[in-house]
């Protein structure tokens, strides 16, 4: 079952770090006393930007008017996050009879793509080890099951592309607020390829971003096209299927190997 239901989205708050940023990025402020953002913050691919909203108080965040405008129009155009409603333990328990790996290409399709991305990320970032809040832990093994969640069950990367388009069309900075499709596609092809990852998703993305030339993007400011308009249809059209780089085609039903892996994990994993 999903951790995030259609009525709510969970915001993640890991421990602040000051690791190097992905690619070539421009921060909102260069003042040394200002929090520079965390490249480990579990939002792909603009975690450095979004971490400033959650890891420090506003006077240390370095966020400016453009930062707040982009967050408001891309993440909060409909309803704000409601953390309490998202923590429904019964809804979080995996069904013993249902298929936890069934592709869900239309999951939260009526939500803004940034909120949809955040919900999918929460469903795939955590595994539920005991059916309770205390059992929600980041992956420490079964990384192929997590890969299946991000790549085959949910339209995560499609939602990422829509979210990046929102930041771009509202005048964001490339390489900080938003990343081009070439960046997202390169990351998608690397992570969702035929070889199962050996680390969890965000550690994989951090390693990829620091070694793959495709992760280096320019730092340019986009033109503000949409102003305060927030309708997602103005900047993106959702895909109706989940594409897969393994075969160059939209995602299909799981292979026998995938079904067996999911069955083995069903007893301990909530959201894969």
Describe the protein in words.
The chain has 272 residues and is mainly α. It contains eleven helices and four strands; from the N terminus they run ααααααββααααββα. The protein has one domain (47-265). It has helices at residues 47-54, 58-61, 65-75, 83-86, 89-92, 113-125, 143-153, 156-169, 181-191, 201-209, 256-265, and strands at residues 126-128, 136-138, 243-244, 249-250. A two-stranded antiparallel sheet has the order 1-2. A two-stranded antiparallel sheet has the order 3-4. It starts with 46 loop residues before the first helix and ends in a 7-residue tail after the last helix. Mean pLDDT is 73; it is low at 7-31, 79-99 and 248-272.
Spans with pLDDT under 50 lasting ≥5 residues?
7-31, 79-99, 248-272
What can be said about the biggest beta sheet? 2 strands, antiparallel
What separation lies between the terminal Cα atoms?
A: 9 Å
Strand tally, please? 4
Proportion of residues in helical segments: 25-40%
Radius of gyration: 18 Å
The geometry reads as globular
**What strand order characterises the main sheet?**
1-2
Number of helices: 11
Helix vs. strand class = mainly alpha
pLDDT averaged residue by residue: 73
> What share of the residues does DSSP label as strand, in percent?
under 5%
Strand and helix order: HHHHHHEEHHHHEEH
Give the structure's gist in a few sentences.
With 272 residues, the protein is mainly alpha-helical. Helix content is 36%, strand content 4%. The strands form 2 sheets. The chain has a two-stranded antiparallel sheet with strand order 1-2.
């Amino acid at each position: 079952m999903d951790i995030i239901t259609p009525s709510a989205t969970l915001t993640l708050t890991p421990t602040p770090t000051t690791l190097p940023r992905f690619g070539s990025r421009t921060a909102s402020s260069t003042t040394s006393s200002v929090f520079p953002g965390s490249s480990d913050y579990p939002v792909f691919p603009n975690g450095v930007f979004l971490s400033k909203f959650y890891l420090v108080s506003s006077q240390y965040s370095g966020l400016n008017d453009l930062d707040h405008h982009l967050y408001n129009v891309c993440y909060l155009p409909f309803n704000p996050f409601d953390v309490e409603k998202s923590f429904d333990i019964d809804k979080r328990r995996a069904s013993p009879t249902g298929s936890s790996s069934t592709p869900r290409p239309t999951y939260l399709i009526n939500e803004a793509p940034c909120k949809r991305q955040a919900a999918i990320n929460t469903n795939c970032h955590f595994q539920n080890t005991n059916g309770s809040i205390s059992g929600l832990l980041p992956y420490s093994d079964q990384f192929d099951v997590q890969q299946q969640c991000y790549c085959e069950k949910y339209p995560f990367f499609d939602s990422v592309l829509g979210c990046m388009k929102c930041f771009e069309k509202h005048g964001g900075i490339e390489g900080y607020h938003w990343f081009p499709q070439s960046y997202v596609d390169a990351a998608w092809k690397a992570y969702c390829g035929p070889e199962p990852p050996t680390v969890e998703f965000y550690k994989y993305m951090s390693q990829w971003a620091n070694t793959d030339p495709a992760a280096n993007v320019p730092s340019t400011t986009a033109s503000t096209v949409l102003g305060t308009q927030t309708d997602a249809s103005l900047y993106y059209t959702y895909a109706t299927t989940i594409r897969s780089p393994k075969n160059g085609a939209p995602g299909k039903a799981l292979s026998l190997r995938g079904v067996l892996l999911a069955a083995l994990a069903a007893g301990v994993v909530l959201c894969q």
